[in-house]
Write a structure and sequence with these properties.
By secondary structure, the protein is an alpha/beta fold. The protein has 6 helices and 5 strands. It has a single domain, classed as 2-Layer Sandwich (Nucleotidyltransferase, domain 5).
């Protein structure tokens, strides 16, 4: 299974989880220059089975820039037009769902913390982990690490 998490914005964070052969996590940030084509091409190359993307709620921050909406549009269009893998599932999550549960401490406990330099990729990781958790897809070692935190 290939899952891509996306935290859209002026700098878009991506995480790519692939357990097709050996479980692997890759972390990428696009931007801050416009990166519509780069986002599209990244999805084309990866051909994910599942895309977990953060929803944009303008009410949460009235001063927010609207650029995230453009990148969400790219993600939605790619998932609709994906002719090579018609089974791509698009999941939209609110920021509070993933970021509220998957704290930095928990990312560190499962050895996925890459630091504040990859802040947006870390937020994308939180979305994938929240999706995996709510769909009972978390690796056993992650569940054990979370239990050890209490």
């Amino acid at each position: 299974m290939k899952i891509v998490g996306i935290d859209p914005g002026e700098t878009t964070g991506l995480v790519y989880y692939n357990d097709v052969e050996v479980p692997n996590w890759d972390f990428v940030q696009l931007g801050p220059l416009e990166h519509h084509e780069e986002l599209w091409y990244t999805l084309y190359v990866i051909q994910p089975h599942i895309i977990v993307c953060e929803k944009f709620d303008h009410r949460a921050n009235m001063a927010a820039k609207l650029m995230p909406l453009e990148y969400i549009g790219i993600v939605k269009l790619w998932s609709v037009l994906n002719w090579q893998n018609s089974s791509t599932e698009l999941v939209m999550q609110s920021p509070s769902q993933a970021k509220g549960f998957w704290t930095n401490e928990k990312l560190k406990a499962v050895s996925l913390w890459k630091g504040n330099g990859l802040k947006h990729s870390m937020d994308a990781t939180r979305h994938v982990l929240y999706y995996m958790m709510t769909n009972q897809l978390l690796p056993q070692e992650f569940l054990e690490a979370l239990k050890s935190l209490g």
